[in-house]
Amino acid sequence: MRVFIALFLLTAAAVTGLFALMHGDPRPQLKAAVERATPPIPALPDPAGVVQVEPAQPPGAGIHKCVKRGQVVYTDQPCPKDHDQRALDPERSRIVTLPATKPAAPAGQNVAKPASGGLDIAEDGSVRRAP
């Protein structure tokens, strides 16, 4: 068995040597192929030319989850005294900004009610789940 392994290794070395003698070293061709396949990486922008964007909320302002008798209200203000503040789960919370007041309905038109389970904006500006 050892003899077969030794013969196999010698044969593989001979074939590799003959290939290198006939075709030359393949490394320069491989390097050229890699350089052709690699896209150019653009330079980073100059920091002096970057426009600063103001955050959607001022620093330190956060979303508060307020709970009262099983009803959950999300607000950017501190929770009222009769509500318990709970921690937000960032994996399950998706923040959506809504107007603070309901738009007035045009005269003579019925006010649309949110679908069951949808979000409703109360008169005080708080967002609640519709019954």
Automatic annotation (TrEMBL):
Annotated spans, Disordered: 99-131
Name under which the protein is recorded: DUF4124 domain-containing protein
Species of provenance: Niveibacterium umoris
